[in-house]
């Protein structure tokens, strides 16, 4: 079964508390999501392989280390996932970015993909699939389906706030995917909002509604 790792770094927890507050403006919200994305990247990339490289400092020769060139991709689930891309991208500028757009079918209430744009070599890349809210798990599951259909083997799901219902659904559908979250909240309400959560992440990011 996949693991869920709640990243309990004090900086992340502090920023997340400001993010959750209803008084936080869209501008501040965007900045915080960006910063938390950057800090999450630190944890999510912890197992990236290193290789030795010979370098000269101004005073000596040494064997240093660098990333072993593992290919990465950041794939946001539209729309709210976009808010997390830049922070991760700043830490891993060699990554490529794919996009998955989904809408909810009014009859089935299930997510349906309407846009998939991936780097051509996505199958060879390790993918960070990002969406700030893991609520019912429907979008995350479909996002992983889309990636696996394209041959991706190594996927990590990165979110800010997860609900136990979404974690369970994603783990059952895709037991091989590790989940990283800044918080594991209490439950989903009858409208599908995470409680206590932070409201609608897309609306808060983009100042809509
Ligand atoms: N999506 C959101 O943006 N917020 C929630 O609470 C649940 C799903």
UniProtKB/TrEMBL annotation:
Single GO molecular function: uracil phosphoribosyltransferase activity
Catalytic activity: UMP + diphosphate = 5-phospho-alpha-D-ribose 1-diphosphate + uracil
Biological process terms in GO annotation: UMP salvage; uracil salvage
Pathway(s) this gene product operates in, as recorded in its UniProt entry: Pyrimidine metabolism; UMP biosynthesis via salvage pathway; UMP from uracil: step 1/1
Pfam families, per the entry: UPRTase (PF14681)
EC number: 2.4.2.9
Occurrences of domain Phosphoribosyltransferase (ranges): 6-208
Regulation: Allosterically activated by GTP.
Cofactor requirements of the protein: Mg(2+)
Annotated cofactor note: Binds 1 Mg(2+) ion per subunit. The magnesium is bound as Mg-PRPP.
Annotated uracil binding sites: 194, 199-201
Residues annotated for 5-phospho-alpha-D-ribose 1-diphosphate binding in this entry: 79, 104, 131-139, 200
InterPro entries: PRTase-like (IPR029057), PRTase_dom (IPR000836), Upp_B (IPR034332), UPRT (IPR005765), UPRTase/APRTase (IPR050054)
Keywords: Allosteric enzyme, Glycosyltransferase, GTP-binding, Magnesium, Nucleotide-binding, Transferase
A cellular component term, taken from the record's GO annotations: cytoplasm
Family: Belongs to the UPRTase family.
Function: Catalyzes the conversion of uracil and 5-phospho-alpha-D-ribose 1-diphosphate (PRPP) to UMP and diphosphate.
PANTHER family: ADENINE PHOSPHORIBOSYLTRANSFERASE, URACIL PHOSPHORIBOSYLTRANSFERASE, CHLOROPLASTIC
Name of protein: Uracil phosphoribosyltransferase
